[in-house]
Amino acid sequence: MSSTDWYKDLERAMTDWNERFAAEVAKGSPSISDLNGDIELTPSEIVYTKDRVKLLHYTPITKSSVPVPLLIVCALVNRNYILDLQPNLSVIRRYLERGIDVYIIDWGDPAPSDRYETMGDEVDYIDAMVDAIRKRSGLPKVNLHGYCMGGALSVIYASVHPEKIRNLVVQAAPIDFSKKEIGIFNLWARYIDTDEIVDTFGNVPASFMNLGFLLVNPVGLMIDKYVKFYERINEKDYAENFLRVEKWVFDTPDLPGESYRQFLKDLFQKNLLVKGELVVNEVRVSLKQLRAPLLSLIADDDTLVPPSSSVLLNELVSSRVKKIMRYPTGHVGLCVSKSAHKEFWPQVANWIAKNSMRNE
Amino acid sequence: MKDQPFEGLYRSWFDLSKTVFPFLSPPKGFPAESQLQGWQTEFEKITKNILGLPPSSLMEIGFGPSAEAYKDYLDLMSSQIELYRHSADIWMKFSGAWAEGTQAAVSRMASETAKSDVGPGKRAYNVWVEELERRFDILLRDEEFITKLASFVSSYLEVKRRSDGILEKFHSQMNIPTKSEINVIYKKLHDLEKKVDKLSRERQEPGVQ
User: What is the pLDDT of residues B104-151, one digit of tens each?
Assistant: First the structure.
């Protein structure tokens, strides 16, 4: 086959795709308009509010069999419903099915006046939510599950307030930035002037951050993803799930400026958390203070938070019970992969249940 | 005329680019100085019309607020031109990676043997995506590119700062609180809230510092 033949093949294939797409649209595209891209949230109620930040409590779906409630902390850059997209792909539901009492933080949308909010303020928000749960449950400690940036915040919180944490689960948490096989974000953070961004924008706009996320893999995220979607558009489950994830990807709030500055400079650029030199609310954060049983969840194909950025945590803490669970998927795939919901998340829920009943 | 590999694709890509970034479209001899100059002249004409500011020849003999405002606009315009130059750098790098990846895919496909489970078009597409991803991954980790990306971000922020600066002056002249003044209040508010929060906690848990 000559190279020109191949080019013609590709052009023919692309024309074919275009014609198929146009035909779908022309006939009212039942395969697209019939898709339900709405998020199917598990019922919950707001039980506590501090400023714009809300604490949601999920309605139990089975008799509670785990004595310690669980608080989930997601990243501020994304909405928390990635853990609750639809019933069969909901981490929340996997926990509820196991009899865990689940709470989650909704960070809300920062107003321009929130530009001075620091990581210390976010740790204070977590503390206020933990205290609200302690008060409701009458228990001295709660379980904590942090995802992505929420994982890093949870680790900081659990190091500063070890007396309030029974078990800690961290999922795809960016902790260590010293490795050579670092993510693209980490590399860029060394060159881009964080101060200039925050001083100019105040809160960092979601659109600015989204552009960064897309640039991490422009071909995969701006071309191939949509071609694959189009190829499988008639598979209802796949297509609907795709639309929901897509909705989540672009539903991003702005990020409080000072928090962004501190996260980028102290963690990404200076690696202060790992060095034991991070200062939050005038307190030096020592990972050695983290004594709660620790479960680290790592996505092997994570390009946003490479596994090397998370694995070191288990070596730096004082927890006697600690475990790493890995799964062959990406950063978001861990939350929304069907197989992960069959095999992985029930095991995570079991780990939480087992360690909640263990004598301290 | 003999078919050139990916002629159609390039054409559609650049057609699309022209729609999105009209000033970035020419693939050769870029950045086109004449285009930028043309745009600069147009920009100058429009701003003069809108604001009734003196033409540039009179600027040196202008005085007071009009000369100052005119200088602000010229600075803003210069920073916008810088932004376009930096975005052109990024665009060139992206186009280069795109062309290289496509070229590599063409060479690779010429020697690939047909597989029965995938059609030729899909196979070609897969190879193309694979090669493009590889090139982009190298590019996005390349120090020279990241430096250019940082300059692009910086020049974008410079444009925003300058236009914010012009607004600040307007607001100030119109006796409206400026963004900087509001930010000072936000900061005070934040610090006060933090203080109140700390005091409330100390009151609830005596002895806790």
Answer: 888 887 776 655 566 777 778 888 899 999 999 999 989 999 999 999
Q: And the tokens for A160?
A: 């500063």
Residue that is written with structure tokens 């694709």 in the block = B9
Rounded Cα gap, residues A255 and A348, in angstroms: 30
Name the token pair of A325: 């669970």
Q: Nearest CB to B5: which of A1, A7, A51? A: A7
B8 to chain A: closest CA residue: A11
- The alpha helices in A217-344, defined as continuous H runs, are 218-219, 225-231, 236-250, 257-262, 272-275, 313-316, 333-336, 338-339
Contact (Cβ atoms closer than 8 angstroms) between residue B152 and residue B159:
no
Q: Half-sphere exposure of B193 toward its Cβ, with a 13 Å CA cutoff?
A: 16
Distance from B178 to chain A by nearest Cα, in Å?
14
The phi and psi torsions of B119 (rounded to 5 degrees) equal -70, 160
Most distant pair of Cα atoms in chain A: their distance = 74
Reduce the DSSP state of residue A19 to 3 states and report it. Answer: helix
At A99, which amino acid appears?
G
Q: Are residues A171 and A148 in contact, defined by beta-carbon separation less than 8 angstroms?
A: yes
Coil, helix or strand at residue A154: helix
Q: Is-cis flag, bond preceding B31, omega within 30?
A: yes
Q: What ipTM describes this predicted complex?
A: 0.81
The two tokens of residue B79 are 């920073």
How would you classify the pairing of strands A283-284 and A294-299?
unpaired
Alpha-carbon separation of residue A77 from A35, A40, A237, A254, A257 (angstroms): 27, 21, 27, 7, 12
Q: Identify residue A255 by its one-letter amino acid code.
A: L
Per-residue pLDDT of chain A in tens (360 residues, 90 and over written 9): 444 566 666 667 667 766 766 776 666 555 666 778 888 899 999 999 999 999 999 999 998 889 999 999 999 999 999 999 999 999 999 999 999 999 999 999 999 999 999 999 999 999 999 999 999 999 999 999 999 999 999 999 999 999 999 999 999 999 998 875 566 777 788 888 999 999 999 999 998 888 888 888 889 998 899 888 887 887 888 889 999 999 999 999 999 999 999 999 999 889 999 999 999 999 999 999 999 999 999 999 998 888 989 999 999 999 999 999 999 999 999 999 999 999 999 999 999 999 999 877
Q: Do B189 and A197 touch (CB under 8 A)?
A: no
Q: Could you give the CA distance from residue A326 to residue A311 in angstroms, rounded to a whole number? A: 10
Catalytic member of A145, A331, A335, A341: A331
Strands A102-106 and A53-58: antiparallel
Torsion of CA A154, A156, A158, A159, to 10 degrees: 160
Query: pTM higher than 0.95 for the full model?
Result: no
Say if residues B115 and B123 touch (Cβ distance below 8 Å): yes
Residue A148 among the catalytic residues: yes
Among B126, B137, B181, B192, most A C-beta atoms within 10 A, so best to mutate, is B137
Write out the two tokens for A42: 């598990």
Question: Hey, what are B137's tokens?
Answer: 């991954």
